[in-house]
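Q: Here's a chain of 288 amino acids. Please give me its 3D structure as tokens.
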Amino acid sequence: MKVVGGSASVSLAKGIARELKAAFVDVAFEKHSGGFPDSERYVRLLGPVGGEHVILVQTTHPDAMVVEFLMLADAIRDAGARRLTAVVPYFGYGRQDKRFLEGEAVSAKAIGKHVAADADELLTMAVHNPDVLKTFSIPAVDVDGIPALGRYLKGVDVDMLIAPDDNAIRFAKTASAICGKRYDYLEKKRIDSHTVEITPKKLDVRGKSIAIVDDVISTGGTIGTVTKELRSQGARRVIAACVHGLFVDNAEANLKACDDVIATDTIQSEFTKGSVAPESAAAIRALG
């Protein structure tokens, strides 16, 4: 077994290789090739993979990483790999999983088709709607990334976990069981893609350090609103914790309300403090 990491996921790929005690294959990456400065991607495997079961680890965000994934998968197959397992820690376009207007692309399904072209199976993490994986032409598994947050939160100053809405209760509950902290939730109403309204609810947070636990932080709007509510109820410290840290648009400003921000390595960033390598490796072993 050998592990290859796309440029978006090199650190995680190395972590998975260590967990599996597998060889890590380096890749040469460039933004263009052949002397043409046109921002095209270029990849080259720097080690043999012929006859091997290869694990390709690459988050498909931003868009260029989708192209890079497809190029790497093709290169691995052309190099003679006997089996290719795609590990896509954050599945870009995974939240576009339904058609609301006539003529819309179901983007999650479309990207899934291309991922499946060279892969034998797919592992992803905390996908927006696991049902979309049933539309893929290869076996696809949604791996739980919340345990990585639970492990990290166990070792920091946190008294209680809060889910920002009832949809995220399962995340707070899972993390709570691992870190041994109590959990509760707030009720959220989304006004539009950038605005949320929190329904007032009395919580036992006065004087406590609170971690808000969710699967994705995108613009940070929900986190900022929840943090203000917790502060108003007397919380002394607020931490934002997520599996996937996108941190787009006004996220930096919205997250300034928090004392700390924690994300896993599904998307590498300055806030990456926990790794999903153990969960990923366990899911790979379970494939047989």
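Q: Can you summarize the key feature?
A: The chain has two domains: 2-144+276-287, 146-265.
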